[in-house]
Design goal:
The protein is 34% helix and 19% strand. By secondary structure, it is an alpha/beta fold. The chain is globular, with a radius of gyration of 18 Å.
């Protein structure tokens, strides 16, 4: 059993991570700001009192241990269009928030959720994460920096929070009759069908990769990529949801959106990652959750 601190533990990825850690017998402590005004219930996964806490505050008075076997830092801001409007807020939370956490916690295994957007650097969101990576490499005793590609799917209980911006979630909402159609931002990119291409990974596979980083110890590499090595266009995702749902997914085309990269696919998959889920699994899991919460 290891003592693990998870920031953002009530969020989408965090709640799945807490579940996996608890299932493997680890002693989990969570801090979260409940930024969206909603949260996933992780009380059954943690052994210590949960803290609604901002990492800019003095967290040392509210957490049960002086040192940790690992810290999984998932808290942060992550909406690309919003970062274009509020760049300061993204640097404040993602960059300086990471520094403040490093300054307060003691661990030889600091695990960080970065982003595949870092390869393009097309938004303040991406740049704020890269700046945080730089700080971790300088300040952390031992670390693993994971660049997540598009995380989707669900364990059937824990869910994505806040306004729906993720493509697979929105496709599932269309299939479940919650919204009328998908809006595609640009169909004139230099890709096979004119729409942007992304790599996707199931949240369960992400959670197990983070568990592996806890069990195996820090990589101390530049970064580790979590994806699938498969590039799926927006149309590919719509088609996958149609196969799962058995019905067409209506869509409309709008102009390109600022900050969107043409293509972002894993080049070298991390050794910490063991893929068990497909794009269809992500679509099916998300659809089942949307139908259950209809």
């Amino acid at each position: 059993m290891k003592r693990i601190l998870v920031t953002g533990g009530e969020g989408y990825i965090g709640s799945h991570v807490c579940k996996v850690l608890a299932e493997h017998g680890h002693d989990v402590c969570v801090v979260d700001t409940r930024f969206h005004g909603e949260y996933n219930d992780v009380s059954k996964y943690i052994n210590k009192e949960f803290s609604v806490l901002n990492i800019f505050n003095d967290i040392t008075e509210r957490i049960p241990f002086d040192s940790w076997d690992a810290v999984v830092h998932l808290a942060g801001r992550s909406v690309v269009p919003q970062s274009l409007k509020e760049p300061y807020e993204y640097y404040r939370v993602n960059t300086m928030g990471t520094y403040n956490l490093l300054r307060q916690v003691q661990t030889d295994n600091f695990i960080f959720a970065s982003t595949s957007s870092a390869f393009e650097m097309a938004s303040p969101y991406a740049r704020s994460k890269v700046a945080a990576e730089d700080i971790i490499r300088e300040k952390a005793s031992g670390y693993t920096i994971f660049r997540f590609f598009n995380v989707s799917g669900t364990d059937g209980t824990n869910r994505q929070l806040g306004p729906a911006s993720h493509l697979i979630r929105r496709c599932a909402m269309v299939a479940a009759g919650k919204i009328p159609k998908i809006e595609i931002f640009g169909d004139d990119y230099n890709t096979r069908d004119g729409t942007c291409i992304r790599d996707y990974i199931h949240v369960i596979d992400v959670s197990n990769a983070l568990l592996s980083a806890i069990d195996r110890g820090p990589a101390n590499t530049q970064f580790e990529c979590l994806g699938s090595r498969e590039g799926y266009s927006v149309i590919d995702v719509l088609n996958a949801m149609e196969r799962v749902n058995g019905k067409p997914i209506p869509f409309s085309v709008s102009p390109r959106r600022a900050g969107d990269a043409v293509s972002c696919v894993v080049d070298q998959l991390s050794d910490y990652c063991n893929l068990t889920k497909s794009l269809e699994d992500m679509c099916s899991d998300q659809l089942m959750l949307e139908l259950r919460n209809k």
